[in-house]
Amino acid sequence: MKNIDVCLSPDLLHLHKINNSIVVVTDIFRATSCMVTGFAYGVKSIIPVASVEECKTLQNMGYVAAAERDAQKVEGFDLDNSPFSYMDERLIGGKIAMTTTNGTLSISKAKTDAVKVIVGAFLNLAAVVNHLKNQPYDVLVLCAGWKGRPNLEDTLFAGAVVDALKDEYFVAEDSAILAMRTYQQAKNDMLGYLANSSHIRRLQGLGINKDISYCLQNDLYDVLPVLRGNELVIH
Description:
- This protein is an alpha/beta fold and 235 residues long.
- It has one domain (4-234): ComB-like (putative 2-phosphosulfolactate phosphatase), CATH 3.90.1560.
- The chain is 35% helix and 20% strand.
- The chain contains nine helices and ten strands.
- The strands form three sheets. A four-stranded parallel β-sheet has the order 1-8-2-7, with helices on both faces.
- Helix 4 (125-133) crosses helix 5 and helix 5 crosses helix 6 (174-186).
- The chain is globular, with a radius of gyration of 16 Å.
- 49% of the residues are buried.
- Its cofactor is Mg(2+).
- GO terms for molecular function: 2-phosphosulfolactate phosphatase activity; magnesium ion binding; sulfopyruvate decarboxylase activity.
- This is Probable 2-phosphosulfolactate phosphatase.
């Protein structure tokens, strides 16, 4: 039977064999929520890069560039890390280069060995789950976390995926069980469950409350970003 597992931080990815796995990268607050939103609003492609320098190089080549560090926009770039910034009609058909503190780094770490890398958020949860139901490979949900540490919101998303696929996949590892049980506890009031989490406090300190509520909504969009080469596109 196929296995589904959860990696709670990209710093733990080396402990997982992913050469027969589809890796679902999630960074709920806010990189993967931005990516899903951008594609839903007509963005053509997104190149995720690990460093600000790589993003600046692509910006100089003509890409719209989004750069975030410590939950704030990096000076000199076009877009920040709010999903509402990706609803701009000027981005329709556009190509975006993106770097974030955690999410794009996680994609960079996963892409070398994974069978396929897809992007997941609560905003496209059903699209992720429906795609994985028909795949012959194992699944690893990679939580972007925060600077190497696990975080609660990404763990909840991982748990939602495991919970939805527990009849199709074997749930063997404690990290997957932990994520699933945490989600089952939290699913009826995720905002309340996350009220004291570190990243919510961080975002609230920056006055970004509307992003928090938006990113916790289920299935606003039926889009599935998939990495092809170095570029995310719609599956």
